Model the fold of this input.
Amino acid sequence: MNLGDALSRLPGFSHAVLVVPDERGYPLSVATSFRVVDGTVEVTPASTGPSAVRDTVEARLVVSHIRPYPGVGYDQRRYIELSGTLSVGGSAWRFNPQGARGWDEQDLSFPELCQRALPQARRYLANLSTERGRPVTPQMSAGWRFFLATRLPFLTATIVPVFLGLAAAAYDRHFSLGLAALTLAGAMAVHLGLNVANDIFDTLSGVDAANLTPTKFSGGSRVLQYGLVSLRQMMALAAVFYAVAIVIGLVLVGISGLGLLWLGVAGVLISYFYTAPPLRLVHRGLGELCVALGFGPIMVLGAYFVQTGHYALRPLILSIPVAILVMLILYANEVPDRFADAKTGKRTLVVRMQPAAVIRGYVGAVAVAYLVVIAGVVFGVLPWPTLISLLTIPLAYQTWKGLSAHYDSPYQLMSYLGKNVNLHLLTGLLLVFGVLLGILVRR
Done:
């Protein structure tokens, strides 16, 4: 904020705090009223004024405003801090501003302000480390760092298709609890490896550093940007997850047959090369397709094959709606990330398309997801109770309206990104419930 801008905004505040050094050099704060006069500021102390206030070249004048919401937080946050000289005399003192800084939430959201302050925070920690002669880093418990680095809540994207494949197998009279648990563990390991690897390669490519508007649904975990976890630790974590996934996959292949091997290999390769060079599939506009395949047919058919030893049409049809809806999680989450993605060459579909086309694409994809369920029931492939999944249509409508209204406002859009995650979760769980209910109806 430059000085002229600060002075023009000053009349929007009612009172100010004048901060000056006292005779011992400690800061002394004085509540004042003020008015701007020809590029200077007349400040009038709320009382007769402390006798310790003297002429100084180290004065600060601070104005601020917030609106509290008890039990919720604050909004309308803004402040201006002017630095300059102070001349004391009479009832009104003369403050001559020479520099300014400030922040207005209407111009710059608080989360973005925090992201822009990261370089300053890193310099502070570096200087503090030098001063103390030992590394000074942000502190957080290992459990919370693991939770953030792996983005555990997104495991719903794995749980839904695996459960759907298991439900389809149960519908065909095949189910082993032990194999089900092993399948879920392997699928979760691949997903967690993907999450961690995605953070690693987005950091190395500069994508996450360029993203100044991350949300809790987009922009990565930020643990590398915040210095909570080192790059070496993230690499080790990704390696462990992929190793666990591969070992479990080979065990399942040994139990269920070689027909599972190619599906597992495809899943691991798509997961790794999603952001990893040289393929970097998401940078080429293939991220949505990869996510749809990985968290749709590959996981649903894989879970089904482990139980039955073969593939079938029913689990394939069941996988299509959840594949589309999980793809739309990525698709919508790319909206607030699109500027940082474009800046670093990450050419996602949202980067390549105009906003109106992105929104039309969302509506069309959701419509196809529901139509597949209806068609599956009409042609007798899916049991009719799976139509219960259509109950989530209002949630899809709300997400579409939010995406349309807040396309350019990342933090207003955030709640609708959450609805979009829930759309996939609830639709998938209702499909699972519908398949299991179909078993009872058939009996």
In short: The two ends are 72 Å apart (CA to CA). Residues 224 and 279 are 23 Å apart (CA to CA).
